[in-house]
Structures are given as C-alpha cells and as structure tokens.
Design brief:
Mean pLDDT: 76
Strand order of the largest sheet: 3-4-2-6
Radius of gyration: 23 Å
CATH superfamily of one domain: Winged helix-like DNA-binding domain superfamily/Winged helix DNA-binding domain
CATH architecture of one domain: Orthogonal Bundle
Strand content: 5-15%
Number of helices: 7
Number of strands: 6
Oligomer: single chain
Length: 181
C-alpha cells in the first residue's frame, strides 16, 4: 500500500510546476531563432538577382544578413571593419554597399565618418520574432574595430534611456571624451 502525505504531494506538485516552467523556457528559446536567419521568398528573389547582377555585392548582403540584430534588422559597422572582415578594401565595401543601396536591397544611414547603419528589408531577411518586424529600427548591435571614438559616438547616438551605465563605463567614457577634446 502506498501512503502519500500532503507534504509529499506538495513537493511533487512543485517538481511538476518546475518541469513545466523549464519546458516553457525551452520552447521560448526555440522561438527566438538564435543562430538562424530567415530568408523569405522576396529575399531569395533578391539573392538570385544579386548573384546575376553583382555576385561580389551579394557577399556583403549575405554578411550583413548573417549579422543582423534580431531586434531591428540592422547592423552598425564601420567600412573599415567590414573590409577587414571580408578581406577586401574599404573602397570595395563602399562600391558594394552603394550598388546594394541603388538596387533597393539595403538602406545605408551614415552614423559617423565611415560608420553606417546598414538595414535590410525585413520582408526579405529577418533574424528575430516575426512580430518584431514592425519595430525594425536602429536599436542595433555594433560591429567596430577597437576605435574608442567611433564606439563612443555610436553609443551616444543609439543610447537607450532605459540602459543604465555602470560606474566603470561612465568613467571610461569620460576619460575617452577628454582624449578627443
């Protein structure tokens, strides 16, 4: 005969609730598409057009698609960073991005110097939740070399009021600002 006390029932119920919570978290993580870039039919059409019209510019399109910030569909990067990452010249990056912009595959917004926010059409390529497409704005990850000045300008440009800086970050930023004055 199995005798179950109220305490044993409560412990078992806590275990069941915890298992349900863990399963819900696993499902939520799976929905986030981590490490996955969605390419829609319009995106595949774009890839085919670029492969025919300018296969070299397609390399930049694919690079940007792979590095999109899932919350906004954009990447902020210096031309120098992109050139180094893709083993080409800065002029080549400029030419490719201009071509992509001219054919409507890319929106390129100057941020500072040769740093741009590169946004792809969320109807073509997307990384995050489908419901996040309406918020495809510039709350983006930033790809830059170790250039503190560029990084500081980008951080101040895209600074979110809800983001709290640590005391260390604030002091480092103040020190960098003094260097540039």
């Amino acid at each position: 005969m199995l005798i179950v006390t109220e305490a044993q029932r409560e412990v078992r119920q806590l275990d069941i609730d915890e298992e349900k919570q863990q399963e819900a978290e696993r499902q939520e993580e799976a929905r986030k598409n981590r490490g996955f870039t969605q390419i829609y039919p319009l995106g595949w059409k774009r890839v085919a057009e670029l492969a025919k019209g300018n296969p070299q510019a397609l390399q930049l399109y694919v690079f940007l698609a792979n590095h999109l910030d899932p919350t906004c569909g954009a990447v902020v990067a210096s031309q120098q960073f992109l050139a180094k990452a893709m083993s080409v010249s800065v002029r080549t990056i400029f030419t490719w991005s201009k071509y992509l912009e001219d054919c409507g595959a890319l929106v390129r917004i100057p941020v500072a110097g040769k740093v741009y926010a590169y946004a792809l059409d969320p109807a073509e390529v997307w990384k995050g939740y489908n419901t996040g497409k309406d918020y495809a704005a510039f709350n983006s990850k930033t790809l830059v070399n170790n250039d503190a000045g560029i990084k500081r300008r980008i951080v101040s440009m895209f600074n979110d009021k809800t983001t709290q800086k640590s005391e260390r970050e604030r002091l480092e930023e103040e020190g960098q600002q003094r260097l540039f004055q």
